[in-house]
């Protein structure tokens, strides 16, 4: 390109003569000034990031005791997390029939940021004693390193004899089909340690649990209840009080 | 409301087929109802805290946007004294370079500045503006593409309808036909980006790679790309060019 070639030529001239032509000198100066501005911007961006983290950290601390209080209340609602999980449009689909049986032993889900928010977080499924595995806690952790990489680690599940849902074809029940079809178990999620990509896109399950289910599981828990109630046509059970689907009577 | 909740709970009990069937006493239902109400209260509390947190984060971002604004202005002025700065930076960016045709390059020589600006409240959108000096290609002195984010993930995209001068419309093959003659279909011009205002796929969410690159990559630090190109030229020049790519002649 013409302009660049002339730029090149001018710079060469500068070297030869050793004395800055006004235009050359200006160009050099401009680029140096630009470099300084970029450094100034970078400092500001770092400051902004720091301030944002400070806010997030502060509010994490504010939320922590509230989540603890919430956990206590939830203990009085049987099958709360199970129901909420199953009612979530995306999460519910991830549980195979066998998974659902295992999940009946799931007591609670906990999402916890590392002390330093920037460093990462973990998602833990708490289980009571059950016939499937020895563990009472299954955790998956995401640790963010400086260079933008994420270190992912998940509990290595200690399956009881013959109960390993991840071993091909073992306990997977196919609904009467003769095909050796193995339904993917949700529990394989704990083994998935591959980073999705370096720009920080994590697996969807983690994102959904952390950003959607954890902040407000009641929304999904209630969904299920309302569905049974208002979903007139599908409901074989008596819903005497409402009678909304019963058009024989008076008004709507 | 409490009664309604109790009714719903009874239905849910049947639906869930869980421990309730064994313990379906009024006493337990009552406790359950109270627990769920307490839970709702806590959720309301959490929501308030979350909203407060979001507001505070937004405040920080707005504050730093204001701090950056005059710096970007100063930067623009300095860039005016560096010929073809933005063009060079574009051509050095691996993705953007591929989108620029030879004809586009001629037009971009008239590009004097780029401006990326968030809306005042940061979250509702931003615009990307290309400012041009008077040129033989179009009447406009600036071409802008604007992105407005609404609730429920809806994005409204608008772009300047370029007022091409006669026979100069590269986006629709005008000049290409003149130059290449027989080819009916020419390479897509970068400038067609300004008329791409359809949101590709609502389900996938907002995606405009060029916008993202300009806003998140080139705009924050174009010098990084400019220098890349600068150093390429220096390396090509065997007769006394700098190796470390700095454009000083020492």
Outline the secondary-structure elements:
The complex is a heterodimer of chains A (252) and B (250).
Chain A: H1 2-17, H2 22-74, H3 80-87, H4 97-103, E1 106-113, E2 120-127, E3 137-144, E4 150-154, H5 204-213, H6 217-230
Antiparallel strand pairs in A: 1-2, 2-3, 3-4
Helix pairs in contact in A: 3-6
Chain B: H1 2-16, H2 26-80, H3 85-92, H4 94-97, H5 102-108, E1 111-118, E2 125-132, E3 142-149, E4 155-159, H6 174-180, H7 209-218, H8 223-236
Antiparallel strand pairs in B: 1-2, 2-3, 3-4
Give a written overview of the molecule.
The complex is a heterodimer of chains A (252) and B (250). Chain A has 6 helices and 4 strands. Chain A has helices spanning 2-17, 22-74, 80-87, 97-103, 204-213, 217-230; strands spanning 106-113, 120-127, 137-144, 150-154. In chain A, strands 1-2-3-4 form a 4-stranded antiparallel beta sheet, covered by helices on one side. In chain A, a hairpin with a 5-residue loop joins strand 3 and strand 4. In chain A, helix 3 packs across helix 6 (217-230). Chain A is elongated and about 80 Å long. The termini of chain A are far apart. The model of chain A is unreliable at 5-16, 197-201 and 229-252 (pLDDT under 50). Chain B is an alpha+beta fold. Helix content of chain B is 48%, strand content 12%. Chain B has a 4-stranded antiparallel beta sheet. At the A-B interface, helix 1, helix 2 and helix 6 of A face helix 1, helix 2 and helix 8 of B.
- Biggest sheet descriptor of chain A: 4 strands, antiparallel
Global mean pLDDT of chain A: 78
Largest interface, with counts of residues having CB < 8 Å to the other chain, equals:
A-B, 62 and 61 residues
Question: Helical stretch count of chain A?
Answer: 6
Q: How much strand content do the residues of chain A show?
A: 5-15%
Give the count of helical stretches of chain B.
8
End-to-end separation of chain A in angstroms reads: 76 Å
Shape of chain A: elongated
Name the assembly state: heterodimer
Instruction: Please provide the ordered H/E string of secondary-structure elements of chain A.
Output: HHHHEEEEHH
Q: If strands are numbered along the chain, what order do they take across the biggest sheet of chain A?
A: 1-2-3-4
**Helix content estimate of chain A:** 40-55%
GO cellular component, one term (chain B): nucleus
Biased composition (Acidic residues) (chain B): 233-250
Protein name (chain B): NAP1-related protein 2
Organism (chain B): Zingiber officinale
């Amino acid at each position: 390109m013409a302009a660049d070639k002339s730029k090149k030529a001018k710079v060469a001239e500068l070297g030869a003569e050793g004395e800055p032509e006004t235009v050359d000198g200006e160009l050099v100066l401009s680029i140096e000034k630009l470099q300084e501005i970029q450094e100034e911007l970078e400092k500001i961006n770092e400051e902004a990031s720091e301030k944002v983290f400070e806010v997030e950290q502060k509010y994490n601390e504010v939320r922590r005791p509230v989540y603890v209080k919430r956990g206590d209340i939830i203990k009085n609602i049987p099958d709360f997390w199970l129901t909420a999980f199953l009612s979530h449009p995306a999460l519910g689909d991830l549980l195979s029939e066998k998974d659902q049986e295992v999940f009946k032993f799931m007591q609670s889900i906990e999402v916890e940021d590392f002390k330093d928010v920037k460093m990462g977080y973990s998602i833990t499924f708490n289980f009571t004693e059950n016939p499937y595995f020895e563990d009472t806690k299954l955790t998956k952790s995401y640790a963010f390193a400086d260079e933008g990489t994420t270190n992912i680690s998940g509990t290595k599940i200690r399956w009881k004899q013959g109960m390993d849902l991840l071993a091909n074809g073992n306990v997977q029940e196919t609904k009467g089909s003769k095909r050796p079809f193995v339904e993917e178990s949700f529990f394989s999620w704990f083994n998935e340690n591959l980073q999705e990509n370096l720009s920080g896109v994590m697996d969807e399950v983690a994102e959904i649990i952390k950003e959607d289910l954890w902040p407000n599981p009641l929304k999904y828990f209630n969904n299920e209840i309302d569905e049974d109630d208002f979903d007139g046509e599908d409901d074989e059970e008596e819903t005497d009080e409402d009678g909304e689907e019963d058009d024989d009577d008076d008004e709507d | 409301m409490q009664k309604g909740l109790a009714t719903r709970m009874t239905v849910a009990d049947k639906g869930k087929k869980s421990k309730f069937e064994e313990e379906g006493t009024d006493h337990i239902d009552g406790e359950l109802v109270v627990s769920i109400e307490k839970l709702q209260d806590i959720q309301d509390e959490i929501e308030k805290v979350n909203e407060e947190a979001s507001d505070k984060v937004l405040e920080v971002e707005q504050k730093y946007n204001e701090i950056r604004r005059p710096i970007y202005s100063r930067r623009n002025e300095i860039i005016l004294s560096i010929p073809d700065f933005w063009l060079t930076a574009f051509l050095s960016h691996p993705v953007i370079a591929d989108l620029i045709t030879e004809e586009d390059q001629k037009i971009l020589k008239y590009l004097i500045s780029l401006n990326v600006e968030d809306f005042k409240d940061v979250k509702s959108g931003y615009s990307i503006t290309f400012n041009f000096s008077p040129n033989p290609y179009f009447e406009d002195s600036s071409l802008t593409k604007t992105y407005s984010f609404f609730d429920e993930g809806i994005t409204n995209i608008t772009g300047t309808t370029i007022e091409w001068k006669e026979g100069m419309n590269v986006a629709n093959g005008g000049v290409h036909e003149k130059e290449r003659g027989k080819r009916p279909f020419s390479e897509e011009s970068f400038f067609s980006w300004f008329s791409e205002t359809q949101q590709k796929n609502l389900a996938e969410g907002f995606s405009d790679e060029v916008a993202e690159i300009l806003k998140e990559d080139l705009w924050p630090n174009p010098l990084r790309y400019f220098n890349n190109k600068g150093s390429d030229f220096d390396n090509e020049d065997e007769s006394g060019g700098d190796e470390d790519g700095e454009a000083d002649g020492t």
